[in-house]
Every structure is written in structure tokens, then in C-alpha cells.
Amino acid sequence: MPDDAFVHVPVLLDLVVELLAPVPDGLFVDATLGGGGHAEAVLDAHPGLRLLGLDRDDAACAAAAERLARFGDRVEIVRSGFDQLERLVTDRTNEGASAVLFDLGVSSPQLDVAERGFSYRSGGPLDMRMDRRQSFSALDVVNDYSFPQLARVLTAFGEERHAHRIARAIVDARPIVSTEQLASVVRDAIPAPARRHGGNPAKRTFQAIRIEVNRELEQLADALDGAVSVLQPGGRVVVMSYHSLEDRMVKEHLRDASTGGCTCPPGLPCACGAVPTVRLLKRGAWKADADEVAANRRSESVRVRAAERIPEPA
After folding, report:
1. Handedness of CA 106, 112, 113, 116 (dihedral sign)
2. CA 211 to CA 132: how far, in whole Å?
3. What is the CATH number of the domain that holds 148?
4. pTM score > 0.85 for this model?
């Protein structure tokens, strides 16, 4: 597949459109624009919205620009990480955003292009950069990090039970220059009984290194706070997560916003002065049903959480 063929099937498209249908007219921020599939559907369904699309990936921005060209000046695309969301919105409007959408994780085109280095299933260079303008890549993590640094990354971002064994094996096998070589080292480092279940043994290691390279969780924390702060009353934020680390962070941030960070004992009236800024649209998360998973395997692990900005108390 050519590097510029950013063909991506949006996950839970109907649910996203439904959740954003009641928002007021104004600015819709797709903070993870990708190929523009979600954005296109939302703009079609809601003529009163204009789009600010953000993505770090140059191929994604180019594909989305082509897909969304028919909307004309209703669309602005900025090559940027979503940690800049609050600044980019306040630079463009004093009214705040009507909607913010996050579709987290790695897109299918990034995984399918071996040269991007995201996939443990195909041979390619150790890259994993979502923004190819940055110099720091998976090659640096794998070959330059110390044993304690590697073990920390694999434990914190991959929740890998065998983090120390894998980190030691990586250090001993250096230099490692390809995804195929890294996947082989990881597989051999994991005890044989553990390799018989749980999917590809390199999955957690690749996830951890990708998160480290792209500072994904650090940027997500800033972006979630920024998204809530720029929403206008009645505006909504929708977040789609694909692994437990992301979903846990989203759950905690939205819960804190919905309670104002209240520290009072559950079941008692708030006496700490906390002021909620959003209401949760669902206790828990939406998941894909069997039909969605059959049509799009990427949706199997998705968790969708959403909240609506409430007016400030008089």
C-alpha cells in the first residue's frame, strides 16, 4: 500500500454522529482527524458546524484535505498534536467549541504501511513516529535506553508482565534496527507457556514503545483538560479509546470534571466547594456490538465515553 493511501474505516460512526447531533452550531474539533471519516459524517449530519481538524501525521492531513474538500471553507486542517487543542481553539473563537472528538490509538493506514514501523506483523524500520518531523523514534528507544529505562517503559505503557526479561533481551541483542528483529527478540524472551495465549507476544512491547515515542498519554492528559475547558455550554466531548491505559485516563478526567474534583464522602452533599463542569452522557462506556466488530475488527477493543458541558452556576 503506498504511503499516501490513507484509507481508514471509521469506528462506531453512527454512534459518534448520534452523540454529536444535539450540539449547538459552531466549531467542531476533530482532534485526531485521520482520514477524515468521522469528520465527514458529522459535517454532513450537522450543517451548522465548521471543522478544525488536527493530526500530527502528514499523510493523514493530506488524505483528509482531499476527502473534505467539498465542504469548502467549513474545514480547516492543522498539522498539530492534540495537546495544542486549547490554544488552537482560543486563537480562532471566543465562543468556545461546540464539539470535540478524539479517536485514539494507531490508525489502520499507519499499521498497514510497513515503512512506518508500527506493526509487529511486518518487517520495517524501527520508526513509530506519528509526526515524522520529529527526530526521536523507536530506534532511539530500543537502542539507546538503559535497561531500567526500557523496563519502566514496558511496565508503565505496556503493562507487560515480563518487562524485565524483555528489556534485558533487547539490551543484549543490540543493535536492533527492524520491527521484525525486535518482535523476534521479544518473542524469544517470553517463557514458552506465556506465548501460547494472549495474542502476539510482541503486542504490549510495541504499544509501550509507540506511546513513549509519541508521548501519547502525556499529550492526552493535556488535551482532555483543554477539551473540557474550551467547550461552550451544551457542547460535547466524545473520546474513543482502544486500550486500558487510555480508557482509564479518559474515565478519570471526565469523572473529575463531572464532580468538579469533589473530595467529599460518597452519598453526602458536597461541602468542599467543588463545581462540576460537565455531565456524563453514560455511566460507563459504549462498546461495539457483534455486527460492528464483524464489519470492522478494529472496533473490538473500543470504549467510547462522552460528556456535555453544563452552564456555570449563577
Report:
1. positive
2. 15
3. 1.10.150.170
4. yes
